């Protein structure tokens, strides 16, 4: 799975709002909506954000493995009969 939590942290540190990204940097509202939902976006969007924020892609994106459903149920106790 992909998480853009680091992007929102980076924006806060730089004092750049989502409105600024749309109006001043021409990042589409659709791309921002996908980022908010941790959905996939085009690499040129990540490239643009890195240029705007003067950072590297891994400063914006983190990757983690989604837990297997069976393992998740076992860990939460939901799989017990």
Low-confidence stretches: 68-76
Q: Which range best describes the helical content: under 10%, 10-25%, 25-40%, 40-55%, 55-70% or over 70%?
A: 40-55%
The assigned CATH architecture is Orthogonal Bundle
- Stated plainly, the CATH topology is called 434 Repressor (Amino-terminal Domain)
Mean pLDDT: 86
Task: List the total number of helices.
Answer: 5
User: Structural class per helix/strand content?
Assistant: mainly alpha
The strands making up the biggest β-sheet line up spatially as: 1-2
Q: Major beta sheet, specifics?
A: 2 strands, antiparallel
List the secondary-structure elements in sequence, H or E: EHHHHEH
How many domain regions?
Answer: 1
How many DSSP E strands?
Answer: 2
What is the CATH class?
A: Mainly Alpha
Strand content: under 5%
What's the N-to-C terminus distance? 30 Å
Radius of gyration, taken over Cα atoms and rounded to an integer in Å:
16 Å
* Outline type: globular
């Amino acid at each position: 799975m992909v998480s853009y939590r680091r992007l929102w942290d980076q924006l806060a540190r730089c004092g750049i709002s989502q409105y600024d990204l749309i109006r001043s940097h021409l990042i589409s509202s659709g791309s921002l909506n996908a980022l908010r939902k941790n959905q996939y976006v085009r690499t040129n969007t990540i490239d643009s954000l890195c240029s705007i924020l003067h950072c590297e892609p891994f400063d914006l994106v983190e990757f983690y493995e989604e837990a297997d459903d069976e393992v998740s149920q076992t860990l939460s106790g939901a799989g017990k009969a």
